[in-house]
Design goal:
Elements lengths: L1 H31 L4 H13 L2 E3 L9 E7 L5 H9 L5 E4 L3 E5 L3 E6 L7 E5 L11 H16 L5 E8 L3 E10 L2 E13 L2 E8 L2 E10 L4 H12 L7 E11 L10 E12 L4 E5 L5 E2 L2
Parallel strand pairs: 1-12, 9-12
Antiparallel strand pairs: 2-11, 2-13, 3-4, 4-5, 5-6, 6-10, 7-8, 8-9, 9-10, 12-13, 13-14, 14-15
Helix pairs in contact: 2-5
């Protein structure tokens, strides 16, 4: 009996030690890959001296592996059937695309420049929010994204831009906790409903190789500052800064799958977007 009590005591002590060790390692790694408050303040001061203002938080910079993705699945037949049902559809083949259209809607499938990208247009929208309150528009946009992607992948709203009489919603796929910038659906809603959209989805297969060190977010922003100040003198507001995966300048011709790398994505109040490779700290702009 005493032996059993001693054994139970040793088990409890072992568990406490392991929990404590886990918390210690977690805190150490979190501190190592999170910018200190001093570095954040220094960054903000330097950016502001250069008339650049950061309106978003800075992501941590844990090491990341490459992500393997395969080329987009051909969903032309499924999307045409899903959007047009039994309506009369006109089919047009051009050198660069396949287009299916009715009297009020149109789907265009890129066949050359970015095979797998789909464009949607409507003169008499069928996706109409109940009212023009923001949550209703987002609800309608999210339902449209499910239709446009055939519910493949988990897409989440990552940005919203509002004009005088329209809103544009940007969705990206999140795979195993990581955003994939190259997988996107962009939806434009006017007072009549959804009038335009575009979408593409590369199929994520999984992460490959050991995690590699990436540049901290402040070094990426210093790189951006030096780059943009070489040709732009006006005040700049960075509205969004996030970390995810992008195809970048990879060659997509005659490939079945590719391994893509982590990028910082910088969005400005003007709507411009810049990408910085987190492995190399090199700037890429689509």
């Amino acid at each position: 009996m005493n032996m059993q009590k001693m054994l139970n005591g040793f088990i409890i002590i072992f568990l406490v030690i392991n929990v404590g060790l886990f918390l210690f390692i977690y805190q150490r790694e979190n501190t190592r890959y999170t910018l200190s408050s001093e570095r954040v303040i220094q960054l903000e001061n330097i950016l502001e001296k250069n008339n650049i203002y950061l309106l978003d938080h800075l992501p941590n910079f844990y090491p990341k592996s490459r992500l393997r993705v395969s080329m987009p699945i051909d969903m032309e037949k499924e999307l045409v059937e899903g959007f047009f049902l039994d309506e009369a559809v006109r089919f047009i083949i051009s050198a660069n695309a396949h287009t299916h259209e009715t009297s009020r809607e149109r789907l265009t499938f890129d066949q050359v420049n970015e095979k797998g990208r789909v464009f949607y247009g409507s003169s008499e929208p069928t996706f109409v929010p109940k009212n023009l309150l923001d949550h209703e528009k987002i609800k309608t946009a999210s339902q449209f994204v499910k239709e446009m992607t055939q519910s493949k992948g988990k897409f989440e709203l990552t940005d919203q831009r509002d004009g005088d009489d329209f809103s544009i919603y940007y969705y990206n796929e999140r795979f195993l906790g990581e955003l994939i910038f190259s997988n996107e659906t962009v939806v434009r809603i006017e007072k009549e409903g959804i009038t335009e959209a575009r979408a593409i989805r590369y199929v994520p297969q999984g992460f490959v190789g050991s995690p590699l060190e990436i540049f901290p977010a402040d070094e990426a922003l210093y790189k951006f500052m030096n780059y943009i100040r070489a040709f732009e003198e006006t005040s700049i507001m960075i509205t969004d800064l996030d970390l995810g995966y992008a195809i970048g300048q990879s060659t997509l011709e005659n490939v079945i799958w590719i391994e893509i790398e982590p990028y910082y994505r910088i969005k400005l109040s003007t709507g411009q977007t810049y990408f910085i490779n987190a492995y190399t700290n090199e700037i890429y702009r689509p």
